[in-house]
Please model this.
Amino acid sequence: MPDEGVAMGNRYAPSGALDARREKRRELGAKAVVRDSHRTRIGGVVLDISRWGCRIDLFSGGASPGRYVTIKLEGMEAWSGYVRWSKSSQVGIEFERPMHAAIVDHLAQTRAEVEFLQAS
Model:
């Protein structure tokens, strides 16, 4: 039986490809607002991030695979992509275009500094 794949907007990804990562994700824990194509706004926390995508724990609702979304973190430009998977309140997003490595490093480092200062 052929692999049906997973809908990705106007393209499909083979089911097995969802487990593959282009690079390791970095822990983040930053609040974000997610908007879908219907302009629905859902708050959440970006749990981890890489140049290619992120994992978000949504405060309410969910988003189905293939849905186009825009993610906005405080102080950053909005970033768009597709929901690749959804499990309970968490979703995996593949960015429409890769984020620059320096931005991912900055986000992860800033978060680490905030956690360090709060622990003091």
